[in-house]
Design a protein that fits this description.
The relative contact order is 0.10. The chain is built from 13 helices and 14 strands. The protein is of the alpha/beta class and 388 residues long. The strands form 2 sheets. The protein has an 8-stranded mixed β-sheet. A 6-stranded parallel β-sheet has the order 11-10-9-12-13-14, sandwiched between helices.
Amino acid sequence: MRKILCLSTSNYYPFPTRKQNVMNRMTDAEIIYVDPPVTCIAPLKDKKVKDRLTAWKKGGAKAEGHSNITIYAAPPVMPFYNKKRGINEMNQKRLAKYLAHIIKVEHGWDNDFWLWVYSPSSADIVAPLAKELGMDSSVLWKRTVYDCVDRHSAYPGMIDPIVVDTMEEDLCRSCGCVFATAQGLYDRLSAFNSNCHLLPNGANYELFSKVTEMKKESDVTTFGFVGMLQECIDYDVLRAVAKAFPDAKMKFVGRTLPGVDLSWMKDYPNMELLGLVPQPELPGLIKDFDVCLNTFADNDLSKDVSPLKFYEYLATGKPVVSTPVPLQVRDYADCIYIGETPEDFVEKCREALKETADSPKAAERLRQAKACSWDERIKAMKKILTWE
């Protein structure tokens, strides 16, 4: 049975991202899934993460519904590792010791596992992990996969973009394979690794296509947004829609990230924050959406994202109105509506509301969603890695 050590940048619970969707479908592998670490000072900013400082001491737990996946918390790390490479190196050496114990003692693996990583900081873990396991680091490098889902150096916060980009370049130059979720990421990373492949995010087609079989219960026109409310969202567009359709509802499903101020929403009584909803319950909410909204601001981070919600929207068959960012939405211009400005976005919403259930656009959205389902993405990954 194949073995995969996945160093994720998203906790396995509660919100499924690309990391969980990929690993959950590697059913022919035994997987160690490691949640990302928090810094020792993280509770000063967000008290909710305090319990994560000691979670790593509790050991592993099987993923619900996936007996081949064991979830572990990573030990806390020193802060500023995205500003000072030396700090990252110390953090990764400590993590390597922890992982070596899990690999050898708790799981009894030989050194034939694959290392699947999502962060540029992992550039500094391969050598110390190989040393802890008594193996040649060049062998582990060849069995390392970097699945790049963001332009990490564009994130706000305590980072030095040059340090992050340098770590990512080092990771790409040495690892065996690179996947990139957006064209801009691929264009950059393929310069460092000839075995780099563009593979955008996908959709849980089986789940979200259930919306096509559900009847809308509300007579009120409803615009819906599913996903994290974060800094890279274009809130001017959302306000424009709220003003243009005062009698319509605007429902936001998802978590509001720390640092995002949504106090202005009180001025828009037609906006409703529903918070985080378990994925299996999403079709039941989306069935009442008349239009699905995909709104990203035009910045370095947004242009290279591959939003899961966009592909999930396609799988519902519902009309989708999007900003021109991220760039990959233009590949679906024949079946969605793209608003270049807030005013144009509002007009595209009006057009979308006129669409009928038997519209060719609706059929094309479903066709496109099925073609980019997670099952199809995993087939492509396995073919590239010669795992089939």
